[in-house]
Design goal:
The complex is a heterodimer of chains A (116) and B (109). By secondary structure, chain A is mainly β. Chain A is built from no helices and 11 strands. In chain B, the strands form 2 sheets. In chain B, strands 1, 3, 4, 7, 8 and 9 form a 6-stranded mixed sheet that branches. A 3-stranded antiparallel sheet of chain B has the order 2-6-5, with no helix packed on it. In chain B, a hairpin with a 2-residue loop joins strand 5 and strand 6. Classes of the chains: A mainly beta (116), B mainly beta (109).
């Protein structure tokens, strides 16, 4: 059974940093592209970043480029998202998801609240 | 890149059919056969219902079907049931990114 278990959300002040983690199981993690998607309260889904299986290809949405960093550790079957220079508008549920052109499995989500 | 365009709401009575549209451009919906549809119930993570325009993952009822014409994709839900009431999002591969639609709230009357 494919599972994506997320951790690392919480309350952070504007300008602060946070690291989100996603532990994958039930599939061959190192051959799958992985993606981060977020959803602001009461809003729709927003694609943030993608990383290929070998970390060779990485892409970011313009809204987070230069502030967020995606990475993975295939030895630990884990995906990460480092969030820096956080703004109030980054408040959202962040989802770790499997896939690139088709996103088929979603983590449970991690709430990040940016507020003073 | 702009989000894909979906109607904010749709509705139908139990047993009826409803179709939700998803409009994009030749750089996304019209350019690739990588359109997906997701169902999201309140407080839950989205669930994949349709991928690659017309394919259904294992376990998704055949009441859900997808199609595409030009730059517009569509999701049809037939034989509406109470549990179909949810938010539905389309997505499309767009080269170096993925675009999502703004979401459609489906109400079962």
């Amino acid at each position: 059974e494919v599972q994506l278990v997320q951790s690392g959300g919480g309350l952070v002040q504007p300008g602060g940093s946070l690291r989100l983690s996603c532990a994958a199981s039930g599939f061959n993690f190192n051959i799958y592209s992985m993606t981060w998607v977020r959803q602001a309260p009461g809003k729709g889904l927003e694609w943030l970043s993608h990383i290929s299986g070998s970390s060779t290809n990485i892409y970011y949405a313009d809204s987070v480029k230069g502030r967020f960093t995606i990475s993975r550790d295939n030895t630990k079957n884990s995906l990460y998202l480092q969030l820096n220079s956080l703004r109030a508008e980054d408040t959202a549920v962040y989802y770790c998801v499997r896939g690139r052109s088709t996103i088929d499995y979603w983590g449970q989500g991690a709430l990040v609240t940016v507020s003073s | 890149q702009s989000a894909l365009t979906q109607p904010p709401s749709a509705s139908g009575s139990p047993g009826q059919s409803v179709t939700i549209s998803c409009s994009g451009t030749s750089s996304d919906v019209g350019g690739y056969d990588y359109v997906s549809w997701y169902q999201q119930h309140p407080g839950k993570a989205p669930k994949l219902m349709i991928y690659e325009v017309i394919k259904r993952p294992s376990g998704v009822p055949d009441r859900f079907s997808g199609s595409k014409s030009g730059n517009t994709a569509s999701l049809t839900v037939s034989g509406l049931q109470a549990d179909d009431e949810a938010d539905y999002y389309c997505s499309s591969y767009a080269g170096s990114s993925v675009l999502f639609g703004g979401g459609t709230k489906l109400t079962v009357l």
